[in-house]
Amino acid sequence: MVSDEQIKDINRLIDPSLLLQKIDFHYDKIQEDEYGILGYCPLHGDHIIKTLAIDKKKKTFRCRYTLCPGFHGGSMIDFWAVYKDISREKAAHELVQLFQLPVALPSRKKQLKKVIIQAEKALENNELHIAREHIKKALEYDPENARAHKIKAMIDYEENATTKFYSQLAKIKEISEDKKESTQILDLLSQISEGKEPSIKTTHKKLEILESIGNQEHVLSELFSLASLYHSNNFLDKALVLYNTIIKYDPTNLEAKDAIAQLLPEAENQQAAVDLFLKLYESHMNSNNIEAALQDLQEVLSLQPTNGMAYEELSNLYVSLGNSKKACQIRLDYAQILYEQNNIADALTYAADSLKLDPDNEEVYLFLAKLYLENNLSSAKANHYYLMAGKIFMKKNNYSRALKYLEKLSPDAKENTSSLKALIKAYIHLKKEDYAVFYSLKLVDRSVAENKLEKADVILRNIVSIFPDNNILKEKYFEFKKMYRSDS
Ligand SMILES: [Zn+2]
């Protein structure tokens, strides 16, 4: 800092005539005597009227022209400052240099360093106003000082002066050797966050800046720190949305995936975790990430195995993926849960509906049969579903399982044509001759009783061809032919 005393000394030591000579603006036309000088004014560049007057004793000047920057006059240092359009401080330094004046001024470099450090300290203490004052001085010493401009940018940033901040960035870019804007900004941002607890607000601001320069990699890493911040501040749903945004941009981001896995169990209660997954599910559906959406619903169900909505959504999702078998299985799972909850009516509706998705799902038939039977609702329906299950097992070549359920048919039910056919088929395949013959004869009797002789004949011949050595059959066939041959 140049002291007032030093300013006075410098001013006293300056020879105004020599100063004008240095400037050399119509110097040959000045009028000078022992008291003063009159000349053309270099400050506003007048070539017609001599408006500049200098008092050689007081070492002051003024210009009579009202629009001249020197109209208000001042010391010789001020004259130089106005002429060069620099600060008084800098003018003092320049004049000492120019005329080799015997005044010991502190070195400008040292001065500059000192005010920058003061500015940094003030910034650190969040005394932004003071920091700004110091930086103003620093820039007077050296208007192109990159470090000072960075501090100025940081002050603008802290004061939320976005426009100023951006013009500072432009300035830093202009004066730095590396002209890459994003490098400059990243460097600055890392300085801004250095040694500071990041806040959600500042991270948001940084994110905006990074987005504005289109640096996706850094946007993602900033997003991650913002998400972590939400996470640690227990804004779990906000954190979750951000982690997912990251995964959306970068599906291979394991860090974000891990974070989600950690975040969920932290939800205060199970319902909160479920809500988080449902939110996640929604966002995955919106971004058409079906695989992830499926995963979310499965997570919901592992947390809350009775969540009907999740079953419903999961089933619908599989239908839309063209996997109606899986969709049916999911509906059956839910029907079983409804049943466990004693909601028999809904369990029935749900299970019966699921058959539309996969009419070959034997599990559904068995479930329905069990349900009708255990609750004494309708033995006819129970029989119907056991028969259906048996038929499906046979369709899938599992005859022993088929038989297991066909044997569950009530004695009445076993008398009907459809059941008899199924039983015969199963016993034949399992090579249980006695039973196959027994039920075949029942079917024959039934057909005869209904006067369907041709049908009875076909059945008999068929079973005889399979078991040609069976005596009961041989006898029956002989009898049948004896009785009906003449009629046919
Ligand atoms: Zn003037």
What does this structure look like?
Strand 3 and strand 4 form a beta hairpin. This protein has a five-stranded antiparallel β-sheet with strand order 1-2-3-4-5. The mean pLDDT is 87. The longest helix is centred in the N-terminal third of the chain and has 17 residues, at 108-124. The protein is built from 25 helices and five strands. Among the domains are: 4-105, DNA Primase, Chain A, CATH 3.90.580.10; 107-196, Tetratricopeptide repeat domain (Serine Threonine Protein Phosphatase 5, Tetratricopeptide repeat), CATH 1.25.40; 431-488, no CATH class. By secondary structure, it is mainly alpha-helical. The protein is 68% helix and 3% strand. It is rod-shaped, with a radius of gyration of 49 Å. Bound molecules: zinc ion. The site of zinc ion has 10 residues, from loops.
In brief, what are we looking at here?
With 488 residues, this protein is mainly alpha-helical.
Layout of helices and strands:
Elements: H1 4-13, H2 16-23, E1 31-32, E2 36-39, E3 52-55, E4 60-63, E5 74-75, H3 76-84, H4 88-98, H5 108-124, H6 128-141, H7 146-158, H8 162-175, H9 181-193, H10 200-212, H11 216-232, H12 236-249, H13 254-266, H14 270-286, H15 290-303, H16 308-320, H17 324-340, H18 344-354, H19 362-374, H20 379-395, H21 399-406, H22 417-429, H23 433-449, H24 453-466, H25 471-484
Antiparallel strand pairs: 1-2, 2-3, 3-4, 4-5
